[in-house]
Write a structure and sequence with these properties.
Layout lengths: L16 H7 L2 H5 L34 E3 L1 H7 L4 E5 L9 H14 L4 E5 L3 H12 L3 E7 L4 H9 L3 E5 L3 H15 L2 E2 L7 H6 L1 H14 L1 H5 L3 H4 L6 E5 L4 H15 L8 E7 L4 H7 L25 H9 L5 E4 L1 H11 L8 H15 L9 E5 L7 H6 L11 H7 L1
Parallel strand pairs: 2-10, 3-4, 3-6, 4-5, 7-8, 7-10, 8-9
Antiparallel strand pairs: 1-2
Helix pairs in contact: 4-5, 5-6, 9-12, 12-14, 13-14, 15-16
The protein binds pyridoxal-5'-phosphate.
Length: about 400
């Protein structure tokens, strides 16, 4: 089952929180060996796949949180961190979702997994499935960035480039899944993607605990005071599944009594693909589709498939929605590079959102802020080259060099 048989809405996976609370303490996770999302296995609704050991599937998640003190100072912020999801095995946040869906597919003995994708979800599914020899079928819009299409093909998925938008690919993949009995991973459709994505919230929580220091944690007073609660987290939004996943992760922790207040979740959409931001501003939960147009292909969505939960993620945490132009996204991409971070446009959009929130006075300079870089800049070098000036071509002589210097 994928969606509600009555209203067609998204389904949530409900954990047996009582059983988890009886068996586990926060320190049980902090002391686990896996430097990946699998360290949270007891909080996940799937087993680790057999044959997954020592494969890329075992390495999904576990991404670093990097400090950006120079960029913070330039923006006038007291503290700015970036969780770098480009370090995932296929170089985007989507590996978290695909790892769990692949695990789930093995549990229900599904032989073929299918997904529609703007590129990253497909690359992640293709890569995670390839890791354990599972078959994957991907529908992507034919104008997806070539690097992402190359990933799909290299991982050996069966790839169909749809002459249409992501939304067209989405509809076709649903029909194909039904017709051929394939297991469908689609974002905002399969409830297990959210369960993979929530692991980023667990990692942020764990990172904030580590900053508190072991001594304080040992006193057992961590729940009401952990700094995760004081964070404002910025994330780019297309279908709305990542922001909903973060919300689910923090809600699970709260329900377990391991997190006091929620961090604020801020969704950033491209101005040309802002169906969720529009509904949020209207104080509504009704999503009206748009004709999406943005160079940030990963968040270019006409009809977001996880819009209701995505709106609630911001509303219920005291967050908000912001829209940013393609020019602002490229500028943010250029801001990150000189700190050693190469983001794809959808990843840089989160930082563009921070700048917009500061400019509008929504974000206080004193607010500890964390942005998620959701994907690697190597996935879309065409966009990256628009964020920089071209390098001069010179004759291989010192004279030519001196002339330019
Ligand atoms: C998919 C994706 C997003 C947006 O996630 P949604 O769940 O669609 O909101 C953002 N950035 C990158 C790089 C992505 O691949």
């Amino acid at each position: 089952m994928y969606t509600c048989p009555t209203c067609g809405g998204n389904l949530d996976v409900a954990l047996d929180l009582e059983a988890i609370r009886r068996s586990y303490q926060p320190d049980d996770f902090l002391s686990r060996r896996e430097a990946s999302l699998w360290r949270y296995l007891p909080l996940l609704p799937a087993d680790f796949p057999s044959a997954g050991e020592n494969t890329p599937l075992a390495l999904a998640g576990g991404t670093p949180v990097l400090a950006l003190p120079r960029l913070a100072a330039r923006l006038g912020l007291e503290a700015l961190w970036l969780k770098d999801e480009s370090r995932n095995p296929t170089a985007s946040f989507k590996d978290r979702a695909s790892a769990i869906v692949v695990a789930r597919a093995q549990e229900i003995s599904a032989s073929t997994i299918v997904t529609a994708s703007t590129g990253n979800a497909g690359a992640a599914l293709a890569g995670m499935a390839a890791a354990i020899g599972q078959k994957a079928v991907i529908f992507a819009p034919k104008n997806a960035p070539p690097a992402k299409i190359a990933q799909l093909l290299i991982f050996g998925a069966q790839v169909f480039l749809v002459d249409g938008t992501y939304d067209d690919a989405f509809d076709l993949s649903l029909q194909a899944a039904q017709e051929f009995g394939w297991y469908c991973r689609n974002t905002g459709y399969n409830p297990f993607t959210l369960e993979g994505k929530k692991t980023a919230a667990f990692e942020i929580w764990e990172w904030s605990l580590a900053r508190l220091g072991r001594a304080k944690r040992a006193t057992g007073e961590l729940a009401p005071t952990i700094p995760a609660a004081t964070l404002t987290i910025f994330v780019s939004v297309g279908d709305g599944n990542i922001i909903s996943g973060l919300h689910k992760g923090f809600k699970d922790l709260q329900a377990l009594g391991w997190l006091g207040r929620m961090p604020r979740l801020v969704g950033v959409q491209a101005a040309g693909s802002a169906a969720i931001a529009n509904a949020f501003r209207a104080g509504d939960e009704k999503i009206t589709p748009v004709q999406a147009a943005t160079l940030a292909d990963s968040i270019s969505v006409d009809l977001p498939r996880d819009g209701v939960r995505a709106i609630r993620a911001a509303r219920e945490t005291g967050g908000t929605y912001l829209t940013v132009s393609d020019a602002e996204i490229l500028s943010a991409l250029g801001d990150l590079g000189p700190h050693g971070i190469f983001a794809e446009p959808a990843g840089a959009a989160a930082l563009a959102g921070v700048k917009a929130a500061l400019a509008q006075g929504w974000l206080s300079p004193a607010a500890p802020t964390l942005v998620l870089n959701t994907g690697s800049g190597l996935k879309d070098i065409r966009a990256a080259m628009q964020a920089v000036s071209a390098a001069p071509v010179i004759e291989p002589t010192l004279t030519a060099l001196k002339k330019i210097l």
